[in-house]
Design goal:
Elements: H1 3-6, H2 9-22, E1 28-34, E2 45-47, E3 51-62, E4 65-76, E5 83-93, H3 97-107, E6 111-116, E7 134-140
Antiparallel strand pairs: 1-7, 2-3, 3-4, 4-5, 6-7
């Protein structure tokens, strides 16, 4: 069985269904998601007090699914010595905002609301991105 034939969409729906099952009637779910075009704001360099993280993001399509692949190298001086570590390549599934909205609406019938993560402006029903490329989803059961 090719895992990508089953994943990620089916597993994503399973996760949302389980979340709804664990959420009490009348309860709220809050989630932070990234848009399919998040790569346009994805930082290539992140600097902390003792760590610099170098990242190389690319969009990857596999069997009609879109992923953001990030290759990460960290430069650290936490231990007092300069240390360079390869953190590997990581794939993150990027479902369309419409898919995310529709799946949450399926399991949270009282309402699903999307907001830009920085401005907190409402994201319209047919929009597929937002200025910050991150969004807050609020779902009411």
């Amino acid at each position: 069985l090719n895992v990508l034939q089953y994943l990620p969409f089916q597993r994503f729906e399973e996760a949302i269904a389980k979340t709804a099952e664990l959420t009490k009637s009348g309860g709220l779910f809050f989630g932070d998601f990234i848009t399919p075009d998040h790569v346009r704001w994805y930082p290539h360099v992140i600097e902390g007090k003792n760590v610099i993280s170098l990242r190389q993001p690319v969009l990857v399509e596999k069997e009609n699914y879109t992923f953001q692949q990030s290759e990460i190298i960290n430069i650290s001086k936490i231990s007092g010595e300069l240390r360079i570590t390869y953190e590997g390549k990581h794939l993150r599934y990027l479902p369309s905002m419409l898919k995310v909205r529709r799946l949450f609406e399926k399991y949270f019938q009282k309402g699903v609301y999307l907001y830009d993560a920085i401005s907190l402006k409402t994201i319209g029903q047919d929009e597929e991105t937002c200025p910050s490329t991150r969004y807050l989803l609020v779902a009411e059961k």
